[in-house]
Each structure stands twice: as C-alpha cells, then as structure tokens.
Amino acid sequence: MANYISIIPDGEIVDALLTTVQNSNLSATHKITRSATLVIAASDSSAKGKAQADYVCDGINDHITINAAIATLPTTGNVTIPGSREVLEANQGGNILLLEGSYQIAGAIDVSGRSNVTIEGIGPATVIYNTATDGSHAIQAINTGAPKNRVVVKNLTVVGNASSGDGIHLREINYQKVEDVYCLSNGGNGISIIGDTEAGAAENKIITNVQCLYNKLDGLHLESTGSVIAVHETQISNSHFEENYRYNVGLFKTIDIHISNCSIEDGYGTFDLYSENGYQLKITGCTVEGNASISGGTTIISGSEIHHLEFPGSTTLIAVGSSISLFTSTFSRVYLSGSVVSLNGTLTITGGGVMTGCELRTGGSIAINLAGTTTDFSMTGNRTYQLNVAFAISGTPTSTRLLISSNYMRTSSLTISGLSVVQLSNNMIIGSGSCGFSDISDGVLQVSNNVLSNYTITVNATCSLTSKQILDNLGGVINDNSV
User: Fold this and answer.
1) How confident is the model at residue 395 (pLDDT cuts 50, 70, 90)?
2) 141 near 111, Cβ under 8 Å?
3) In 3-state terms, what secondary structure has residue 161?
4) 42-60: per-residue pLDDT in tens?
5) Is the pLDDT of residue 403 over 90?
6) CB atoms within 10 A of CB 461
7) Which one of 145, 314, 338, 415 has the fewest CB atoms closer than 10 angstroms to its CB?
8) Mean pLDDT computed over 175-182
9) What pairs with residue 354 in β-bridges?
10) How many CA atoms lie within 13 A of 399 on its CB side?
C-alpha cells in the first residue's frame, strides 16, 4: 500500500494564499457567484459597497436608477405547472439587493408586469425615503388585468410623507411575500394588498415581521375591488401595527385571513382592526388594544385579547381561551369557551349560541335577544359576577330554548321573558340578586336543584305554562305566581 503525506501550510502561508486570491484580477467567468442578481448602492453606502455594486445611486431620484436595474431582469419563459392555474415563468425575474444607506425617490420603484422578483435590503439600514408629493407609492407592482406571480419585498425600511402614496402597493399578484419591513409615515397605507380578480390575487400571501406606524390611512390594507372576493389565503404574523390614522389593519371583502401573534394598538381612527364583508377570519395570539369591528362569515378567535369587539353584521363567532369585551352585535351563532368575556349592549342571536367554561361579566345591564325561526342558547359551567342580563325574543320566532346550568353565579340578576322552553338547574347562585320569568306562554319551565343564598326567583303571573317543574332548590326565596 502506498504511503501518502499530507502537508498543511501554516497560518501565515494560508493568509498569504487568501490575500493573493482576493487581490487577483479574476476574469468574468471565474467571479464568485453572489446571491443577488443585481446589487445597488446608495449615495451614502460604504466605499466597499459602492465598489462591489452593479449600480450606484446619486441620492437624487434614485428610483430611476433602481428601475433601470429592474428593467434588465429577464422577462422570457413560460412553463406551465400541471394542475396549477398559474405558470412558473422559470426564466423571469431576479433579485435586486439594495445595500445600506438612504435611497431618495420621487417616484415608485416599479415591479409592475414582472414575476419572480425580489426587492431586498440588508435590514433596517436600507432606508427608502419617498419624497413624492403626488401620491406616488414607494414600491409598487400593479398588474390590473394581467396578474403576475411571486413578488417579494423584504429587509428594508420605507419612510414616506403626508403627500406620498402607499409604502408598498401590490396589486393582482399571486404568491407574494412582505417580510422584515418597516413602513413609516406614508401618505397612504403602509402596506396595500389589492385583488381585482380571483385569478389575480387568489392565494398564498405572507406578511410577516413587519411594523407599520404613523401612516395616514391603514397600517395594513387588504381589499378585493371586483365582484368576487379576490384576496384570500393570507398569513399575517409576528407583526406590529400602531398609530396609523384610519385603521391599523383594514380588511375589505376578504376570505381566509389568518392574523397571528400580532399587536394592533393605539390607532388614531375609530377602529384598530376593521373587517368589512369578510369571511373565515382567524385571530390567534394577538392583542388588539382598541376597538375592533368585524362583519361577514365566521370569525375564530383563540388565545387573544381584544378590548372592544363588535359585529355589526350577522356572523358566527367562535372564541376560545381569549379575553374579549363584546359589544352590541348580531350573530347567526356564537360559541364562547374558556374565555374571559365582558358583555355590553345588546346581543342578537338568530341561530344559536353556547357559553361554556367562561368568566362572564357585564358592563351594566345587557340584553340577549333570541331571534330567527328556532334559536337555542346555553350557559353551562361558567363563573359570573355582576351579570345583569335580560333574555328575550326578537321578532316572531317559533321556538326559543334557553339552558342555564351548572354555573357559579355571584351577585347576578336575570330576567327571562317570551321564550318557549327554559331550564334553570344545578346552579350555585349567591349574593344579592334575582331571577324573574315572565310571558312564557304555553311553554315549558324547569327550575330545579339550584343552591341559592340571598337570592330570589320569581315566576310571574304572565307565565301560562303547559309543563312546569319547580323543586329541590335549596335556600333563597322561590315565588311561583304562574297560571
């Protein structure tokens, strides 16, 4: 067997070899490949950065230089993906890397008409200053009528002024991403995602690790403008929206939006979070310090805190493990579980509802109206304090059923009128308060096995019951005046 001797140069020789390689004039075919297609330096980037850049801005109308670089990216290619409605466009696009420094722009950095393009900085030190006073956006990709795919904006800061447009404006793009971006003081929205057609803005939008502050309209704005819901399947995560002037987050005709681990607070408008004509909105692990208004299909809230929540249009609400203050709203159905809930105003329920395992309080006297053709509502296993609720019917429902069971209720008052079937059973009710039943005609009432302390239950003479059971209640006062 042959013997081999490995000779390893000492440290000084290694350093000398590296220096020789770095200083050598390598031909174009031997240059080390870098991750960005094109590198652009600002007028105040480092000397080293400028020396390595493909383009160097002069600090005046830098968008012209950046757009010139974008114009050199490939635009050919069209490879269809089997089973997909979009195309890969494999030979299109590229990466534009903006080095550290200040980029002064008076018009948009424009990626319209292109797919597979990334506009990337090196972090917060890459700052784009939009000096435009005509409403021009800072970064835009507008593809109305001709949707494109996969545009990414990341790792930079956008600063506007009161007369500029949006910080980032993306219209009719599938599979887009905005990440690690600061959008500050823009004259429009911080970030706008617009869809005109389902084919143009259908799915897979990711907005993560962004901060939008001091923008004159919304911090984040998602909107479908056409006759169909075009903006959906959007992930908004790990982001902060604060002190924007209209809404911190504004959603208009959207579907399947998931907002997770975000703080939404201290907006200057009426609502910090506003969703109009939306469907399948999921809010997970978020804090909304101000008001929130949500209308449309189903809303799921988990592990979140919302200080003022209202639903002006009929919706289904599912809230689990959250802390919410629920104000005057209309629901098709409502399910509250394992949450701390403050009830305020009037809640109208047209389908049904469940409150279980919650801590319930009221901000004064509230009304829960059961409407619709047949409506059922149950409160089981809750802890209540100063819960002052009037249960009644709204409209002319044919059947309304109410179950109040296995709750611990302290210093709470209930009035129940007009319902068809009512059961109040197995509750512990202590502290000053009362429960009154009235106007239950040809209905069924059971009041049984409750533990009462300093509490009065009265069945008024306006109740004409076909079936009644009032027994085995311990303590308190029971007044049965029914006929």
Assistant:
1) confident
2) yes
3) coil
4) 999 999 999 999 999 999 9
5) yes
6) 11
7) 145
8) 95
9) 335, 378
10) 4
The DSSP-derived string for 34-55 is -SSSEEEE-TTS-HHHHHH-SE
Give which of 473, 54, 466 is closest to 482, Cα–Cα: 466
C-alpha–C-alpha distance, residues 90 and 116, integer Å:
8
Under the banding of pLDDT at 50, 70 and 90, the label for residue 480 is: very high
| Residue 190 backbone phi and psi in degrees, to 5 | -65, -55
Angle, vertex CA 149, rays to CA 143 and CA 153, nearest 5: 90
Residues 235-265 have pLDDT tens digits of 999 999 999 999 999 999 999 999 999 999 9
DSSP lists the bridge partners of residue 184 as 159, 213
Tell me how many degrees the CA angle 405-410-413 measures, rounded to the nearest 5: 75
For 14-42, give one letter per residue: b (16+ CB within 10 A) or e.
eeeeeeeeeeeeeeeeeeeeeeebbbbbb
Alpha carbon distance 390, 393 (integer Å): 10
- What span, in angstroms and rounded, lies between the C-alpha atoms of 193 and 110? 15
Q: Cα separation of 446 and 360, whole Å?
A: 23
82-107 pLDDT tens trace? 555 555 666 678 999 999 999 999 99
How many other C-beta atoms are found inside a 10 Å radius of the C-beta of residue 385?
14
